[in-house]
Design brief:
Strand order of the largest sheet: 2-4-3-10-7-9-8-5
Radius of gyration: 20 Å
Distance between the termini: 23 Å
Shape: globular
Helix content: 25-40%
């Protein structure tokens, strides 16, 4: 993990700053410096450089409806076009092109009363699509918002998740999942505030207030309320390769019903699991993992403790990511 990496990510301190932003994308540089035990001037300089490079982005996603994972089998040579069409949807959270079948996978936020229309009317119209697999998410085990790479100690994480931080989830301040599909109308000022955060999740409260036409105190209060209500999630969007985890894979896991919760608990404790959800279908758990090498992936799917109650695992490598955390990729990876 301490090996030198090319480009803006120079060393382990850079990666620890990235990890701190994963814990709370709106944490002040002062708070991050205190948590990491580093000079604030150094953290400001390095953190600003990472954000200015565009390789680390802080965005906000407004949540509408429930998560549905869509897999698509594509005509030859059409996977990138299909994935691009999915990624451009405003309700899309992530889109990855995969090895094997399906050729690409996406998570969409779709109210359950619109699911029939999505399955029967919208997805069949995707150009280059041969077959789709629609898997409504029954429960999230971990989302990208909760993932960090294990580079920080428990004490460092606790400092970032303190009273001024943004734990996930937290009954008082952190992001939570919306409890239902009930749509709540947002005020004009709330919409303006969220639009500004979608472009830059680290906008100051003064900037948010100016954009939304409210006071700084009101902007702070409204953003806190929207996060507590599960209406918006703020997250750091990165390529896992920046943290020394260049090999990404999607796993479809089948387990006996009685063992599903034990598998979920083990996956939730594993630093390589970026995303995991219970979904419908014969493979109940969908996992996105990031590891240091293909050898590490082999060990992860053949001998890791979480496999104890698993009946089978289907593995696909991620070839390219067109959207992460609701943000389109700057440059799709080949």
């Amino acid at each position: 993990m301490n090996a030198q990496q090319p480009g803006p990510v120079a060393d382990s301190l850079d990666r620890r700053i990235i990890s701190a932003l994963q814990i709370d994308g709106r944490a002040s540089w002062h708070r991050i410096a205190a948590a990491l035990g580093e000079a604030e001037r150094t953290v400001v300089r390095r953190g600003t450089r990472l954000l200015d490079s565009g390789l680390v982005r802080i965005g906000a996603m407004t949540l509408h409806g429930r998560s549905t994972v869509v897999g698509v089998r594509c005509a030859p040579g059409q996977a990138r076009m299909v994935a691009s069409a999915l990624a451009r949807r405003p309700d899309c959270v992530f889109t990855h092109v995969l090895t094997g079948s399906p050729d690409c996978v996406a998570e969409l936020l779709c109210p359950r009363d619109r699911l029939a229309s999505l399955v029967m009317d919208e997805l069949p119209g995707l150009p280059g699509m041969l077959e789709t697999f629609t898997l409504p998410v029954l429960r999230h085990i971990r989302t990208i918002r909760e993932w960090h790479s294990g580079l920080l100690t428990d004490d460092e994480i606790a400092t970032l998740e303190g009273p001024s931080g943004a734990p996930a989830p937290s009954p008082t301040d952190g992001d939570v999942m919306p409890p239902a599909d009930v749509a709540h109308d947002l005020s004009r000022s709330d919409r303006l505030l969220l639009n500004a955060l979608a472009e830059d999740g680290r906008c100051t409260y003064e900037e948010l207030g100016r954009v939304a036409g409210v006071s700084e105190a009101t902007a702070r209060r409204r953003l806190g309320a929207l996060r507590r209500e599960g209406r918006v999630r703020i997250r750091a969007v990165i390529e896992p390769a920046l943290l020394g985890l260049p090999v990404e894979a999607m796993l479809r896991v089948r387990t006996a019903p009685a063992g599903a919760e034990a598998v979920a608990a083990a996956l939730a404790d594993n630093v390589h699991v970026r995303y995991a959800s219970f979904v419908t279908g014969e493979r109940q758990i969908l996992v996105l993992a990031a590891l240091s090498s293909e050898s590490a992936l082999y060990d992860f799917v053949t001998s890791a403790p979480w496999l104890r109650d698993v009946a089978s695992v289907d593995v696909s490598l991620v070839l390219s990511s067109l959207k992460r955390g609701g943000m389109l990729a700057r440059r799709p990876r080949d």
